[in-house]
Design a protein that fits this description.
The complex is a heterodimer. Chain A is mostly helical. Chain A has two domains: 19-110, no CATH class; 126-341, MetI-like (MetI-like fold), CATH 1.10.3720.10. Chain A has helices at 2-13, 19-23, 32-46, 58-79, 86-107, 115-119, 123-126, 137-171, 175-190, 193-203, 213-239, 242-250, 255-285, 297-308, 312-342. The two termini of chain A are 29 Å apart. In chain A, 27% of the residues are buried. In chain B, the strands form two sheets. Chain B has a six-stranded mixed β-sheet with strand order 6-7-8-3-9-10, sandwiched between helices. In chain B, helix 5 runs parallel beside helix 6. Classes of the chains: A mainly alpha, B alpha/beta. The interface between A and B is medium-sized, with 27 and 36 residues.
Chain lengths: 355, 247
């Protein structure tokens, strides 16, 4: 209701006028004539750019940068103008992006003719894979993907269980227990995953604790994510109004029943978006497992690349990562937006403060 | 009153501090079975705190509380069992927003009393009927009006078949047109002989249903008596001042 009224008010008070209607003309830098002429001038100026290949002198570098800046100013004048139609802005934005691409193509000094052979040489993957292998490169990559997913899923399960327990015990507000949990959380948040993984896999065997590489990887990822996940759950639990606890306790529910039946189901709603993005981050972090010789997707790709002396397997792995992670990243964004539009939870709404 | 009446609640010299703030300054009252006791008093007098201390939602700082003869301030008492015998209706309803009305009602019977799901559902529907909401059994709290939510909250408290019910300003968060429906439910309860402790300023309700009124001010019971007698002829100057403001 309120916003509608405001909009009506705005429409009544502010007349919708363009610059032209108010002042009779646009300033020179906003006119289409200027935009067109300056664009043609910029194109003409482009012929003065140095020849392709890595620039040799500082002057050539400066010239390229100057040209880019001029183009940026030209596009900026269009993009910040509220009265320009969107299609013109779209063209300007596309032009500036293409210019970046073109300048990189022209002056990076890369041997572009090798691109297809190096990056998209799919034949490399359809042959049998690395040393002693009987299956194709694709099959090996697929095998690696399965291991990646396996590590991610196990780490997610263990990390979530551990994190949930930490958060629930934290909510008991016992000072000694809390101190331990805080130390745990801070320690594993501060610890780089790769260091943790190497300690578990390379250092612990000296104490006669020998874990397989996969177990070490899962352990490091679970411990690391337990710290983050417990903080997520803690925020979720704390977001539930204390009224809910009182109502549950007044009915005779025990602390744990209150947690299980009243608090956690409500907290889940709040927790879902950050939890999802945490899982996405963890799936990405499985790539670290390649450092302790787990044959997951990245390690498989690197091995193949070394064996075939061609980076196509790495490109293929990149594409596989993106195919899996892009939708997940999108889902977590959608969940987050949904959450925001809903308000935080139903419970927080419509609860007057107790006197 | 020829026969001995059963004492449901007895507090002896009950004190409560919030940090340095002395909220309850030695309250000693006895509440008998079947009584409807209204607690009135200016804001900040400690009415809600008193109610919440009796079922230990707040820990009393000192003093004794006996519920049906059991000293609940002793550390050995099973507070969950005691609480399950005391219904509590909050000012802000405090329904569980992730559960429907009927699920709200049967949650505690199923998980605390271990009543079979079906039986609890049956009982819950009867209670909803009693508060006039049988058609709202599967509505979520945010689909109900304030008055309806509060009636569900009362049904939820009743589902545990409590020996007494506390009402903590049950109507003060409600729009005027919804107050009546909640008060009607409470009045019916009172007529059935439920022991009730009500913090409320609904004078109409107190006149009709309450058997006794306690006036709390600055953490002390300054006056008590029958509603009619107390409203018409208050003795304590603070009571006079307070009543002149709300009458």
């Amino acid at each position: 209701m309120k916003t509608k009224n405001n909009e009506a008010l705005k429409e009544n008070c502010l007349e919708k006028t363009t610059w032209k209607e108010r002042y009779g003309h646009w300033p020179w830098y906003r006119r289409y004539e200027f935009i067109l002429v300056s664009f043609l001038a910029l194109i003409a100026f482009g012929f003065a750019l140095p020849r392709p290949g890595l620039p040799e002198t500082l002057f050539q570098w400066l010239f390229i940068v100057f040209y880019l800046l001029l183009f940026l100013v030209w596009a900026g004048l269009i993009l910040i103008d509220v009265e320009k139609p969107n299609w013109i802005k779209a063209i300007a934005a596309t032009l500036i992006l293409s210019l970046f691409g073109w300048l990189f193509y022209r002056y990076s000094g890369a041997q572009w003719d090798k691109l297809g052979y190096a990056f998209f040489n799919w034949k490399v993957l359809s042959e049998t894979g690395s040393y002693g292998s009987t299956v194709t490169g694709w099959a090996e990559l697929f095998q690696g993907l399965l291991i990646t997913l396996q590590i991610a899923i196990f780490s997610a399960i263990f990390g979530t269980i551990l994190g949930l327990f930490l958060a629930v015990f934290r909510s008991l507000n016992d000072p000694i227990l809390n101190a331990f949990i805080i130390i745990w959380v801070d320690f594993f948040r501060a610890m780089p995953i790769i260091v943790l993984m190497m300690i578990i896999y390379y250092a612990l065997p000296y104490l006669n604790i020998t874990l397989s590489s996969t177990v070490s990887g899962i352990m490091a990822l679970s411990l690391n994510s337990s710290a983050y996940i417990s903080e997520i759950f803690r925020a979720g639990i704390e977001s539930i109004h204390h009224n809910q606890v009182e109502a549950a306790r007044s009915l005779g529910l025990t602390t744990m029943q209150t947690m299980r039946l009243v608090i956690l189901p409500q907290a889940m709603r709040v927790v879902m978006p950050p939890l999802t993005s945490n899982y996405v981050a963890m799936l990405k972090d499985t790539a670290i497992c390649s450092s302790i010789a787990i044959m997951e997707l990245l390690k498989t790709a690197i091995t193949l690349q070394a064996w075939k002396a061609n980076p196509t397997p790495l490109v293929a792995a990149t594409i596989i990562y993106l195919i899996i992670l892009l939708p997940l990243a999108r889902i977590s964004t959608v969940l987050e937006n949904k959450m925001k539009s809903k308000g935080i939870t139903r419970s927080i709404r419509r609860q007057p403060k107790a006197a | 009153m020829g026969e001995e009446r059963q004492v449901m609640i007895e507090t002896i010299d009950l004190h409560k501090y919030f940090k340095d703030q002395h909220v309850l300054k030695g309250i000693s009252v006895k509440i008998y079975k079947g009584e409807v006791v209204a607690i009135i008093g200016p804001s900040g007098a400690g009415k809600s705190t008193f109610l919440r201390c009796i079922n230990r939602l707040e820990e009393p700082s000192s003093g004794k509380i006996y519920i049906e003869g059991v000293d609940i301030t002793s550390p050995r008492v099973d507070m969950n069992k005691i609480r399950s015998e005391i219904g509590f209706v909050f000012q802000s309803y405090n329904l569980f927003p992730h559960l429907t009305a009927i699920e709200n009602i049967k949650l505690a019977p199923v998980h605390v009393r271990k009543i079979p799901e079906k039986e609890a559902e049956q009982k819950g529907l009867e209670l909803l009927k009693k508060v006039g909401l049988e058609d709202k059994a599967h509505a979520y709290p945010d689909q109900l009006s304030g008055g309806q939510q509060q009636r569900v909250a009362i049904a939820r408290a009743l589902a545990m078949q409590p020996h007494m019910i506390f009402f903590d300003e049950p109507t003060s968060a409600l729009d005027p047109e919804m107050i009546r429906e909640v008060l009607d439910v409470m009045q019916n309860l009172a007529a059935e002989g439920m022991t009730m402790l009500v913090v409320s300023h609904e004078l109409g309700f107190i006149r009709e249903a309450a058997t006794r009124v306690l006036v709390l001010a600055d953490g002390c019971v300054i006056e008590e008596g029958l509603p009619r007698q107390l409203f018409n002829n208050p003795q304590h100057p603070r009571t006079k001042e307070f009543l002149s403001k709300i009458l």
